[in-house]
C-alpha cells in the first residue's frame, strides 16, 4: 500500500509540474500587472520576450526546487559518489543521441528541403538580441527545468525503460516543435529533438540521478548557444 501511495504521490507531483510547465506563459503577465503596462505594446519585441521568458523560468525553477528539494539532495549524493561512471555513461548516451539528431536533421534537409526547426530559428534570434541573458536561460535554466519535466517526472512513474524512454522521446520532441509547427515537415523535427530526449532518458535510467542529464543538457545547450552566436 505504501508503494502504491508513493507512486500516486509522484504521479500527482509530475502532473502538476507538467501543467505548470505548459502554463508558464501566465507568469509573463505578472510584470505587466505590476507596472500597469499594456501587453499589446510589446508584441513582437524580441528583447521583451527574452526578459519575460527568463522571468517565468525563474519562477518555475523556484517551484521545482521547492517540490523536489529532497530528491535533488539525494540525487546529488549519488552523482557525487559515482561522478566519473555517471558522466562516462551519460556522454556515451549523448553521443549516440547527437549522431541520430544530426543524421535525422540532414535527412530532413536533403529530402524535405527543410530550413531548420522554427523553434531553433526563433531561439537564434533571441540569442542575438540579448546574448548574456539568453546564455543564462539556455545553458542554466532550461536544462534544469526540462530535465525535471521530461525526465524526472516520467521516471518517477514509469520505471520500465522502454516506456520511459519512448515517452521522454515523444514529449521532449513535441515540446520543442509544437508551438511553432505549421506543416508536416515542422512536425517531423520531433525526431531529432526526441532523439536527444531519448538519449538523456537512457542516461538517467542507467545512472539513476538527474544530475547526469542536467550536466549533459547544459553541455549540449552551451555548444548550441555558441553556435547560435556564430551563425
When the domains are counted, the total is 1
Mean pLDDT: 93
- Span between termini: 55 Å
Uncertain stretches of 5 or more adjacent residues: none
Strand percent estimate: under 5%
How can the largest sheet be summarized?
Answer: none
Please write out the topology.
Blueprint: H1 2-22, H2 30-34, H3 46-81, H4 83-112, H5 118-129, H6 131-155, H7 161-177, H8 184-188, H9 190-207, H10 210-230
Helix pairs in contact: 1-6, 3-6, 4-9, 4-10, 5-6, 6-7, 6-9, 6-10, 7-9, 9-10
Describe this protein's structure.
With 231 residues, the chain is mainly alpha-helical. The protein has ten helices and no strands. The model has no long low-confidence stretch (mean pLDDT 93). It has one domain. The protein is globular. The longest helix is centred in the N-terminal third of the chain and has 36 residues, at 46-81. The protein has helices spanning 2-22, 30-34, 46-81, 83-112, 118-129, 131-155, 161-177, 184-188, 190-207, 210-230. The chain starts with a helix and ends with a helix. Helix 3 crosses helix 6, helix 6 packs across helix 9 (190-207) and helix 9 packs antiparallel against helix 10. Helix content is 82%, strand content 0%.
Amino acid at each position: 500500500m505504501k508503494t502504491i501511495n508513493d507512486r500516486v504521490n509522484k504521479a500527482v507531483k509530475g502532473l502538476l509540474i507538467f501543467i505548470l510547465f505548459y502554463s508558464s506563459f501566465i507568469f509573463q503577465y505578472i510584470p505587466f500587472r505590476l507596472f500597469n503596462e499594456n501587453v499589446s505594446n510589446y508584441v513582437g519585441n524580441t528583447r521583451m520576450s527574452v526578459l519575460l521568458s527568463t522571468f517565468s523560468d525563474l519562477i518555475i525553477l523556484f517551484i521545482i526546487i521547492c517540490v523536489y528539494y529532497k530528491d535533488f539532495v539525494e540525487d546529488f549524493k549519488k552523482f557525487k559518489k559515482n561522478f566519473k561512471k555517471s558522466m562516462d555513461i551519460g556522454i556515451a548516451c549523448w553521443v549516440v543521441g547527437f549522431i541520430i539528431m544530426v543524421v535525422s536533421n540532414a535527412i530532413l534537409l536533403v529530402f524535405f528541403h527543410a530550413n531548420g526547426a522554427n523553434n531553433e530559428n526563433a531561439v537564434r534570434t533571441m540569442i542575438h538580441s540579448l546574448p548574456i541573458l539568453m546564455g543564462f536561460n539556455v545553458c542554466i535554466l532550461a536544462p534544469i527545468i526540462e530535465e525535471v519535466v521530461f525526465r524526472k517526472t516520467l521516471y518517477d512513474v514509469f520505471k520500465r525503460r522502454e516506456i520511459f524512454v519512448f515517452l521522454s522521446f515523444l514529449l521532449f520532441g513535441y515540446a520543442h516543435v509544437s508551438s511553432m509547427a505549421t506543416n508536416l515537415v515542422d512536425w517531423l523535427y520531433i525526431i531529432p529533438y526526441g532523439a536527444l530526449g531519448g538519449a538523456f532518458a537512457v542516461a538517467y535510467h542507467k545512472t539513476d540521478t538527474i544530475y547526469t542529464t542536467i550536466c549533459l543538457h547544459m553541455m549540449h545547450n552551451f555548444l548550441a548557444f555558441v553556435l547560435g552566436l556564430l551563425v
